[in-house]
Amino acid sequence: MNGQKKRQLKTYLILAVLSALLARVFCSDADSHPTTDVCSTNTILPGPKGEKGERGNPGEIGKLGKEGPMGMKGEKGDPADVGDQGMIGKIGPIGTKGEKGCKGLSGPAGGKGKAVIAGIRETDEKYYYIVKEERSYRDALTHCRIRGGTLAMPRDEASNSLIADYISKSGLFRVFIGVNDVEKEGQFMYTDNTPLQNYSSWKESEPNDASGHEDCVEMLSSGAWNDVECHLTIYFVCEFMKKKKTDLQRA
Ligand code: GN1
Ligand code: CA
Ligand code: CA
Q: Distance from CA of residue 235 to its chain's centroid?
């Protein structure tokens, strides 16, 4: 029996008791008062059971239940995937200097030197160098030219003195310079085909064209010139023009 039926039965009994009490009150002196149908039997019976009431409305949503106890500790999870590669770290400090390596094997012997240069001299405009190899005038001139220069052409006292000092300081006595009268006897020219002009440094009694075949010129350590045969093989002095500097390089 549910609660609703209990309440209906309780109400029913209360009504029955009240009906009996009222009947006793109104029907107790039936002899002196007109009776009614209700009181004729002096009994009050309950009426028939009523129809079933309508279905009640649904109850409200219940309150939120209490928080349950903490669950058991779960199992250890699977290992995660491999992470992305990290950034390259900073460059480490410079390591200590290694030990000196072993001495290498000797290299092959060098070839015979082509030219022995007796130092070098220079002015603002030119370089000079004496080649200590005995060459004819023609071969000496070729040596200088294939290196971008020519046999030295002293055109003034300053350059002549420089070359003379160079010869003597090198312990030498004579060198070919770039002067000759190959083209026309007695008409001396520089190797660039320019004639001697305001300057020459002939030794006393030179040029004498001794034996009629002296068409090339040497400079002695004194700075004096002498005409000699061109096939003579002696040392020689080359000259090279310096590259002109730009305004920026001069600044
Ligand atoms: C030399 O050696 P000798 O005297 O023949 C020189 C000439 C000079 C001359 C001056 C190869 O000739 O050029 O003019 O002395 N020849 C050589 O006396 O040096
Ligand atoms: Ca001559
Ligand atoms: Ca001579």
A: 54
Ligand 1 atom 13: residue of nearest CA:
228
Cα 211 to ligand 2 centre (Å): 9
* CATH superfamily membership of 121-250: Mannose-Binding Protein A, subunit A (3.10.100.10)
Element (H, E) at 247: helix 247-250
Look at residues 183, 166, 177 and name the one whose alpha carbon lies nearest to residue 206.
177
Q: Ligand 1 test: best mutation among 203, 208, 232, 234, most atoms within 8 Å of CB? A: 208
233 lines ligand 1 (CB under 6 A): no
Rounded CA-CA distance 116/44 in Å is 162
Counting runs of H as helices and runs of E as strands, what totals does the chain give? 5, 8
* Two tokens, residue 60: 């409200």
Sign of CA dihedral 143, 147, 148, 149: negative
Q: Residue 143: which region, alpha, beta or left (left: phi > 0; alpha: psi -120 to 50)?
A: alpha
82-141, pLDDT tens digit by residue? 666 656 666 667 767 778 777 766 655 544 555 688 789 999 999 999 999 999 999 999
pLDDT in tens, 128-178: 999 999 999 999 999 999 999 999 999 999 999 999 999 999 999 999 999
* Residue (of 207, 183, 179, 173) closest to 191 by Cα position: 179
Locate the domains of the chain by residue range.
3-42, 121-250
- How much distance in Å is there from the Cα of 174 to the middle of ligand 1? 12
Q: Is 231 in the pocket of ligand 1 (CB under 6 A)?
A: no
Distance CA 118, CA 166 (A): 9
